[in-house]
C-alpha cells in the first residue's frame, strides 16, 4: 500500500464521526408509547423485555413485562435496543425440521427397496442403490418439509428490529497478505 492510499484511508476514517455530528434526529424518535422493546444495558449483559411508557429525545421510561416499578434509561445507558415490529411465522424453521428426518427415512427406504433381492439386488448394480437412495431422500424430504412448513405457519414469534443508537462508528483493518497488505474499512451510522 502506498502512502497516498494510506493517507486517504486515514482521512476518511477520521472524517466519518464529523459527518454524523450534524444529525439532529434522535435514535429514539422512531419509538412510541406502547411499543414492546428488548433492552440490553451496559454492564450487566442481561436482556429486559418491556413496554414503553414514555419516550423523549434522550430518555426512555419502560414498564417491565413481569412486574415492577417503571425503569428510566438514558440513551447513554443502552448497549442494544430492539423494538417488536409485527410477527413472523416459523415456516422456514418448520420446513428444515421436517426435511431432515424425511430425507433420512426416504433415503433409507429407497436403498432398502433397491437392494431387495426380488427387485434388483445390490450386488450387480451398486449405483442403482445409490440413485434410489437419493431419489427416496428427495421425495421423502420434500413431503415432510412441506408438512413441517405448514405446521410452522401456525407458530408466530415477534419480529425484532434493532434501533440504531445514533453513534457513528468506523473501523479500519489491516491484514498482511503475501506480497502486500489487505485493507478493510467498515462504517456504520
Structure at a glance:
With about 190 residues, the chain is of the alpha+beta class. It contains three helices and eight strands.
Strands ordered across the widest β-sheet: 4-3-2-1-5-6
Classify the helix fraction into a percent range.
25-40%
Whole-number total of structural domains:
2
Largest sheet: 6 strands, antiparallel
> Any idea of the CATH class of the largest domain?
Mainly Beta
Proportion in β-strands: 25-35%
Brief descriptors of the model:
alpha+beta, 3 helices, two-stranded antiparallel ribbon, SH3 type barrels, 189 residues, 2 domains, 6-stranded antiparallel beta sheet
Task: Give an overview of the whole structure.
The chain is of the alpha+beta class and 189 residues long. The protein has 2 domains: 24-87 and 159-188, SH3 type barrels (Roll), CATH 2.30.30; 91-154, no CATH class. Helix content is 37%, strand content 33%. The protein is built from 3 helices and 8 strands. The strands form 2 sheets. It has a 6-stranded antiparallel sheet with strand order 4-3-2-1-5-6, with no helix packed on it. A two-stranded antiparallel sheet has the order 7-8. A hairpin with a 5-residue loop joins strand 1 and strand 2 (47-55). The longest helix has 28 residues, at 126-153. The protein is flat, with a radius of gyration of 28 Å.
What's the helix and strand layout?
Layout: H1 3-19, E1 36-41, E2 47-55, E3 59-64, E4 71-74, E5 78-89, H2 91-114, H3 126-153, E6 156-162, E7 169-177, E8 180-188
Helix pairs in contact: 2-3
